[in-house]
């Protein structure tokens, strides 16, 4: 019982929301009569492919953003490169400031349509949260702790990996979760540049005036975002050292 009380409320409450929404959607789905177009789009074979492509877009973009943003954030907190931090953050902020659809269209002129272009657009759009949280997480580590680790003979690299990064993990992973949720939502726009995603259901529903298809697409995107956010929260809890909150 005491263990349950120590578990953060979102860890057990978010799955309840996911189950309620998921079960509600299934009951709604079974009670509806669909047109031939809706049946084709929401058939399991087509729907499975669409969901998997949406997940692939999200995962690939997230991996690239993490590989780029975390090392860059670490480098920008080192004394030699500290002066470049405002420049890097402002450049990363361009992705957030620009409309997502406009950003994807601009990359289409350069790279053409399809999966690769969608990935590039998503990476640019989602890099800021992870970069900024990496910098903030490392900056908030108590300087006295760093000095103490150096005082007992730790090198700069050992201090970074055994002291600074473990203490910054909660903030960094929070940025990764934020980026994941952003990517799940933004990936729906990739349908405009020829990449398959759940946005296909939404745009088809709008174009052909099929509200049931539009509702299904919106609910499935929402459920996917909730599931990925919850899984990210579990990873955040597992990766956070004991005593660090």
TrEMBL record:
Chaperone among keywords: no
Domain of life: Bacteria
Pfam families documented for this protein: BPD_transp_1 (PF00528)
Classification via PROSITE patterns: ABC_TM1 (PS50928)
Subcellular localization, as worded in the UniProt entry: Cell membrane; Membrane
Membrane topology term: Multi-pass membrane protein
Domain ABC transmembrane type-1: 51-232
Major localization listed first in the record, in broad terms: membrane
Segments traversing the membrane: 12-29, 55-76, 88-112, 118-138, 180-202, 214-232
Keywords carried by this UniProt record: Membrane, Transmembrane, Transmembrane helix, Transport
Family: Belongs to the binding-protein-dependent transport system permease family.
Descriptive protein name: ABC transporter permease
Organism of origin: Nocardia aurea
């Amino acid at each position: 019982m005491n263990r349950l009380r120590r578990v953060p409320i979102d860890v057990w409450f978010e799955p309840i929301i996911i189950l309620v929404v998921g079960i509600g959607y299934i009951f709604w789905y079974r009670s509806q009569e669909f047109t031939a177009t809706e049946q084709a789009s929401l058939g399991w074979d087509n729907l499975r492919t669409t969901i998997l492509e949406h997940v692939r877009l999200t995962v690939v973009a997230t991996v690239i953003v993490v590989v780029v943003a975390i090392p860059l954030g670490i480098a920008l907190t080192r004394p030699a490169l500290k002066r470049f931090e405002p420049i890097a953050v402002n450049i990363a902020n361009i992705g957030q400031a620009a409309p997502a659809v406009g950003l994807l269209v601009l990359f289409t002129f350069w790279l053409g349509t399809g999966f690769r272009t969608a990935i590039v657009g998503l990476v640019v759009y989602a890099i800021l949260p992870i970069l900024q949280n990496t910098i903030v997480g490392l900056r908030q580590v108590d300087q006295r702790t760093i000095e103490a680790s150096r005082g007992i003979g730790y090198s700069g690299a050992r201090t970074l990996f055994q002291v600074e990064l473990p203490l910054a993990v909660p903030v960094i992973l929070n940025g990764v979760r934020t980026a994941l949720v952003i990517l799940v939502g933004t990936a729906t726009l990739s349908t405009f540049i020829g990449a398959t995603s759940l946005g296909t259901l939404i745009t088809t529903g709008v174009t052909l005036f099929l509200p049931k298809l539009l509702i299904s697409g919106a609910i499935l995107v929402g459920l996917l975002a909730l599931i990925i956010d919850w899984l990210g929260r579990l990873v955040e809890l597992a990766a956070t050292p004991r005593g660090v909150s």
